[in-house]
Structures are given as C-alpha cells and as structure tokens.
Amino acid sequence: MSRLAAAAVTLTFMAAGCSSVNPTAADPAPDEPSSIRVATFNASLNRPAPGQLVTDLQGENAQARAVADVIVANSPDVLLVNEFDYSGDDAVRLFNDNYLDGQYRYSFTAPVNTGVDSGLDLDKDSALGGPGDAWGFGQFPGQYGMVVYSKFPIATESVRTFQNFLWKDMPDSLLPRDYYGDVSDALRLSSKSHWDVPIDVNGTTLHVLASHPTPPSFDGPEDRNGKRNHDEIRLSADYISGADYLYDDKGVRGGLDEGASFVMLGDQNSDPVDGDSVAGAIAQVLDLPRVQDPAPTSDGHGTDTADFADPTPGDLRVDYVLPSDDLTVLDSQVYWPNQAEHPSDHRLVWADLEI
Q: Which residues form the signal peptide (predicted)?
C-alpha cells in the first residue's frame, strides 16, 4: 500500500474513470504530512489492433508481466502509464486485477486523439484515412492511450480533459499553417490528451497533470511534429500558470488555480539538451517558478529515461515527474535495471513527495 503512517482507505470496486470510497480505518488528520511515491512509465503496452491488449491481459502475457514486475518493484502510490491502449475500462481492470494484484483501487482513463480519423488529408498523401490522417497518429482509436492508477481516491467529477482543444486557439502558437493550409483551423493540439486528475491524499488535493506529447520527428522540413511537441508541452506550462485562454472538453475556461498542489507526469518526448525537439520545448515547464525538477538519476545512465537506438537519437531524458514548489521531494530515481531485456524502451521514473 502507500507509505503513510496510518492506514490507507480501501474501495470495493473500480470503474472507468470513476471510483467510490469505503474506508476501513481512520485517515491521518488533514494537516499530518504524508509521503507518497508518484511515478510515470511509458510501458509500451500498445498493440497493433483494437482489442488485442484486452485479449492479452485476459491471459498470461510475457511483456505485460514484465511491465507489472517493474511497477511492483517500485510500488508507486500514484502511477501514470503511457502507451496503454484505450478500451474503456476493460484493459485497466484486467491489468490491475491480473497483473498488479488489485493493488490500485482507483483509476482514471478516457478517450484520446490517437487513431481518431479526422476526415482530412493531414499527411498530404492525397488519400483520406489511415494513421497519418488521425487527430493523433495511430492505427485505431485509442492506440497509445494512457491511464492513471492511484491508491488514493480520485475526484472523477472534477477531472479536466483537453482532448478537443484546438491548436489555433493557443496564442502565438507554432502551428505550421503553410504546411496544413485550409485545414489548419480544424487541428486539435493534443496528440493524445492532456488531463488534470485531482487526487485526494488524506484531505489534500494533488492535481496529477498527465500528458504524452507527440515525438518531435517523423516529419519533414516543416517540422510539424516538432512544433506540435513544443506547443503540447506549452499547454501544460500555460495550464500550470493559469492561462485564461485554455478551455477544457466541458467548455470550462482557465488553467490551474493559483497555489494548487500538482505533479506533472508523462513522456514529454523532449530532452533538455539532446534530441530533435524544438529548442527550449521542455524548458517551458522546467523554468516555471512553481515547478521543481528533481532530476532523478540511475547508476550508469545519469538522468536518461529512454533507451533509444544508438547513435541517433541515443539515450535521452524524456519522462518526467515534476512536483509543485509547495511539495517536499524526499527522493527521486530512474529505475534502470541491469537486465539485458526490458519490456519498454522507456524506464519508470518516480519521486517520493511529502504532501
């Protein structure tokens, strides 16, 4: 369970993006500090066909088991999993029940833009349909999705999602209108989605800001993916800063409330120094006064979190756990075991935070 001095709450069931509390012991007083471990892991639990992840998780799948072993070895209390195909709550339940011993009693998942057909020729191949014409690159709706698991209650009714936010509505964006032409105004910014998932940690609300911007590659001289990656990261930075131009999928405007506690999680596909991302992309978040960067490390790999092909792009730091300045960072690491095989080209990153 969590690293709390007192007993954690338990729950009788999980629901897709919804949970209900059934406490079995008294929680600590709201002003009593609690230490929790928050982690992000691009687990590569994506599959080439819709429904395949659900099928795999119904039985014993070697890669899913290896992913679960990584998670269990680090025992996070709050976890974002990137590249987890969206299928409603089916895969979420199966992975928790069959592979994680049911330890996460709360979860949130929601639709993403990957694989959702735009009806437009976004990749300029003179044909409609296919992964390049989806709002976010994907073979089917929900591929490369994400899920938040938590041992603490999720305030599902207060979750904010930004799947439908239009790129054109970001002031001074890098939207490459010369490339996209007449369809520019229709483009959604988030390649998957951006979520604000409020979690109740013994009376204190922790906002989990989850995202997975597109890789800044697989394009041409117009650098459309690099510019999208930059602006997806900027959306998170502007949300933290409380930008009033933002609107969520319910039409509610504005960003995070001033002074709110948060932790930004996810594979941002941007290294502070190396790689193909637009200069300063991840710095938009790292340089914010309210953001702490624990800069976690692992033995022999420094701050790198991804084991990509050598020499290009090589190992990079692209996965982040970034808490707000009101939280105390007790420890932080990149989990990089010495084993030859790993279930993903990314490594799990965690931070222990005092709430």
A: 1-25
